[in-house]
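REQUEST FORM: STRUCTURE PREDICTION
Request ID: SP-0412
Submitted by: Lab K.M.
Chain count: 1
Length (residues): 104
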Amino acid sequence: MSRLQQLQAFLAQDPNDSFTRYAIGLEYAKAQDYTAAIRTLEELRTIDADYVPTYLMLGGYYREVNDTANAEAIYKEGLLRARKSSDLHAASELQAALDELDDQ
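STATUS: Completed
RESULT:
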């Protein structure tokens, strides 16, 4: 059983587990299936909008498919949520990603 299959089995047992859904998105991206990665992290964003790690990765995956408009919107939303939850490290990473996007 692959890591992705294991994670999917875990998610089937607990569909509300944000970390597992996030990890599935990362596995798809690892396989360069950015469409599936984006779909998975968008689902996570709908289910648990306050799961801050989602935003940096999701924005990056939008960049991988050359969708800079969505990447920018995701980074900005993540920045707001990170600040709201006082996650200064995530806010810093999201701001850096946004700045890098603006420099392109």
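NOTES: Residues 3-103 form a domain with the Serine Threonine Protein Phosphatase 5, Tetratricopeptide repeat fold (CATH 1.25.40.10).
Reviewed by: T.R.
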